[in-house]
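In response to a reviewer's request, we include the raw inputs and outputs for one of the modeled complexes. The two entities were modeled together in a single run.
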Amino acid sequence: MAPSLSTEVCPSLTIGAPTMLASGILGISADVFARVAEAGAGAVVTKSVSREPRDGYQNPTVTGVRGGGWLNAVGLSNPGAGSMAGMLAAAAGGRRGAPVIVSLVGSAGPEFEQMAGLFEEECGGAVAAYELNLSCPHVARVGLEVGDDPALVREVVRATKGATGAPVIAKVGLGSARYMDTVEAALAAGADAITAINTVRAMSIDVAAMRPVLSNGIGGLSGPPIRPIAVRCVYEIALQHGAPVIGCGGVSCWEDAVEFMLAGASAVQVGSAVAGAGWVGVFSEINAGVRRYMEDNGFSGVREVVGLAVQRR
Amino acid sequence: MRAVEEVVQETPTVRTLAFTDAAMHAALPGQFAMVWAPGAGELPMSVMVHRGEGKAAFTVRRHGPASSGLFGTAVGGLIGVRGPYGNSFDVRRGRLLLVGGGTGMVPLMRLLSRAGGDDDVTVLIGARTAGEVFFEEAAGRPPGGSGSRAVEVSTEDGSRGRKGLVTAAAEEALGAGRFDAVYTCGPELMMLGVVRAATARGVFVQASLERVMKCGVGMCGSCCAGADIVCRDGTVFDGDHLLANPDFGRSYRNKAGAPEAYGDARGAPAPGAGIGSR
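The model returned the following structure tokens for the whole complex.
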């Protein structure tokens, strides 16, 4: 029998394939979610939504990095929780495709509680899980600035958990505090899984213009250059906590996905790789490669691969 | 970065900036670039044709901060150029009808440069008023072969050419003669009219869409229209595909990503930055 791509992200969330669309990528339209699901993604994560709509920063917001990878400071542009909830509710009728995970961003517990409550009320059945953005590296008072404060992380996770019975995933990144403190605070407050990592705070300067390329100056680095960092974080979280982890950072091909799985990730998120030549076909390419890998190595399912490299040196 | 080598004032608010860039020189008709005016901003621009060896250009209408920054870039000023991105027009042979509004003429000029010398091309240019008409002379330059070039201008106030919307001129042209293909770029409701008129007569038609663009490479999703990501799947789409797209001619997404409806043809909000509609 061919090995199954289905994977248990956490006890209450099983998805049909181990590749998910990362937050911030292609994430504002239900029609596009359906298309990405048809392209093979096991789940799609929305762009992070805030209580109020945000225009984000002026262009340039995205730039390619010489030597590889992408740098962005889009500035959390999003139509707001109300608009996103309305769209998901409208799309829920003729629902096709993969589970939708709603990414939430805010500054304090009540905001998260309010937003999760709104989604539960408007389209609860259409939200498979919530991912809390505790790691956007380029917007003040949200993202990493929340993630860097363990007390605030506990507050935000508890508030969200109180508003929904759906799984709550904490997305952590590398801020100025120990990221493992963020992980521990989130898990202690009841987070069902951890996504690691977000983009890494970074900058590009144009040598001819003699100024930073991004309008915000500082942005977040994504793509292959951050993959080894992300693999290390997933490995450490799996080793120290044995908690469910979703790997995110530079996944571009099936080997990258398998590498994260061996480090302890039960699924991976794919982001800037969609800018590659394969476009959204990257999901089915990765899935096919993971399946072949399992076949070649005698695994019957993803679970048998997850964490195999942990404690092997 | 590229140095601007030549600036042409097309109208009081529109300029063409030429520069040397082999990749942009070779861009296909309809392809665009993300163009950075340092300190002002970055915006998507259709690549304008330039006859100089290895040269290309951008034609920009002064509007927001980024386009004003680009508009104000003098000879010797530096601009950042990434791309070319997106697909291109399927340039057919025979009798072609090009319908452009405002800077929507830019991709059509590149298309015209790829049309065969033996093709008969009719170019319909739409503008609000006489002072906003540009590329009329260049569009009418006779081709090398046995083909022809005809240009007709429509202005909404009647100050030049025929009075009224260019869609009316397109309807009339399609009713009067047989065309092998129709290409259009400009305000979305204008394109909707042209696509409907051509489709109703069974004529192959393509339009180049404009949406809010940030990355230009299919990552950020800002430019989605229905299930299409305009920067990657387009910006050029076939008419029948567009008529099946629930957003075409109806709504676009603003900078925050929330859907907004297009108004009437005159007051249609311009969503993005300059690929076509302004």
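As requested, we also summarize the result in words. Chain A touches chain B at residues 24-29, 31-32, 34-35, 47, 53-56, 58-64, 70, 72, 74, 77-80, 83, 206, 208-209, 211, 213, 215, 271-272, 274-275, 279-280 (CB under 8 Å). The longest strand of chain A covers residues 127-133.
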